[in-house]
Design goal:
Number of domains: 3
Radius of gyration: 21 Å
CATH architecture of the largest domain: Beta Barrel
Largest sheet: 6 strands, antiparallel
CATH topology of the largest domain: Cathepsin D, subunit A, domain 1
CATH class of the largest domain: Mainly Beta
Oligomer: single chain
Number of helices: 7
Number of strands: 28
Strand content: 35-45%
CATH superfamily of the largest domain: Acid Proteases
């Protein structure tokens, strides 16, 4: 059901932390450019996430997701900070997505991050006492933390999806081509919001959306924000991602169109999520500056070359792909998680009743051994998801393991939304 629409919802997860790192004066050493006009930092782009390789305290090479929807930088693996002997300033309670579990994070200050021997900085971060996210199984990647994009707001941020690198540019050295469209942005707590229009059932509705590189989807709408945001009749239920305290439930369907400035996206694949009422009170009050109707993620953003000017509240966008191209969507009806040695074992975590996967006899707990004749050992989770998202009524040969026995079947893909 969810597949490569959104493997997790980082933005909501970090939003639910509901705090700022504060309490004492801290000097963050943050001149990563120095006398240079700009620096380029390569990233890995997998499962629609921007993954940065950083050196923590000049000791541990770790993977951080670059997230413009996160207010704070978060270390998921406390074992690294313990090994480094980092001092914790405060212990804080987090607000989980189910509002029942008590979850805690620790504030540690002045932590060094290095992108290269010559590019480094330090900042205050949150350290989870326990890794509730377990992003490895959802993404098929080793993920150690989430890096807040807002920390780089002193500079112009360039997200080059095509060549896969981030650039941070001195404002006085920034020049932009006329081919880029200026998109006004609103900033609140370091997060970026844009005004757009969605067309649902032939109604045009103005919306305020979070720009979120921590979400691997095209568009998400909160059903509480507007009565017109109900999931369409042709939609499927599923887990939209994972936040603090549990999976986030919702539906996936399509709306008629999303329009952002002059850019139009017909038949936009959209996730529909209902927020908990207590979260709605805090985050969906129209009188509050951080009120929003939803978010746009990497599956939409990666169709552009993007510059973000935090100081002037402008985002510059130039298309690098056909905006009318259909968004990728799962056509099998099953969710698959990565597990085992080097995350090369793939287990079916859920199957939608009546879906192609269900008709083929696949069940929760089955291990995928081969897909279209290829061993799962040589495939990434991203590649397996792409195979089950192929267009048309493709017949996908699958070999799987159940209770130690090997079985074969064929999954005939079909449009589910």
């Amino acid at each position: 059901m969810i597949k490569n629409l959104i493997r997790l919802t980082l933005a909501l997860s970090i939003l639910l932390i509901c705090l700022k790192i504060s309490g004492q004066s801290v000097l963050n050493k943050f001149d990563i450019i120095g006398r240079q006009k700009k620096i380029d930092i390569p990233f890995q782009y997998e499962n629609h996430f921007i993954l940065l390789r950083v050196l923590l305290q000049k000791s541990f090479p770790l993977n951080f997701i670059f997230d413009t929807g996160a207010e704070n930088t978060l270390l998921l693996k406390k074992e690294y900070s313990d090994l480094l002997g980092l001092k914790y300033d405060r212990r804080i309670k987090l607000l989980g997505s189910d509002h029942t579990e008590e979850m805690y994070a620790l504030i540690t200050r002045g932590i060094g991050f290095s992108f290269s021997p010559t590019v480094s900085y330090s900042q205050d971060i949150l350290v989870l006492e326990q890794d509730f996210f377990q992003l490895e199984e959802l993404t098929g990647l080793y993920v150690d933390g989430i890096m807040s994009g807002s920390f780089f707001k002193t500079y112009i941020t360039h997200i080059n999806y095509k060549s896969r690198y981030l650039s941070f540019i001195q404002p006085n050295a920034f020049r932009v081509s006329r081919k880029y469209v200026k998109v006004p942005i609103e900033l609140s707590n370091g997060k970026i919001y844009v005004n757009a229009t969605v067309s649902i059932n032939n109604k045009k509705i103005p919306v305020k959306l979070l720009v979120d590189t921590g979400a691997g989807l095209p568009l998400l709408l909160y059903t509480d924000a507007n009565p017109n945001f109900a999931p369409p009749e042709k939609s499927i239920p599923g887990k939209l991602g994972k936040g603090l305290g549990g999976f986030l439930e919702g539906h996936i369907g399509k709306i008629n169109e999303l329009q952002l400035e002059s850019f139009k996206f017909p038949n936009t694949v959209t996730s529909f999520q209902q927020l908990d009422s207590s979260v709605t009170v805090q985050f969906q009050d129209p009188n509050q500056r951080n009120f929003r109707d939803g978010l746009i993620g990497n599956q939409l953003l990666n169709r552009f070359d993007i510059y973000i000017d935090y100081q002037k509240s402008i985002m510059y966008m130039s298309p690098i792909k056909d905006l009318s191209k259909e968004f990728n969507v799962d056509r099998s009806g099953m969710d698959i998680l990565a597990t085992g040695h080097e995350l090369k074992q793939y287990i079916v975590s859920s199957v939608l009743p009546g879906s192609p996967a269900a008709k083929a006899g696949l069940k929760k707990g089955d291990f995928i051994k081969k897909v279209v004749g290829l061993s799962s050992n040589i495939l990434s989770l991203d590649q397996i998801i792409a195979i089950f998202s192929r267009k048309g009524h493709r017949k996908i040969k699958v070999q799987y393991i159940r209770d130690g026995e090997i079985y074969k079947t064929v999954v005939e893909l079909e449009d589910l939304i």
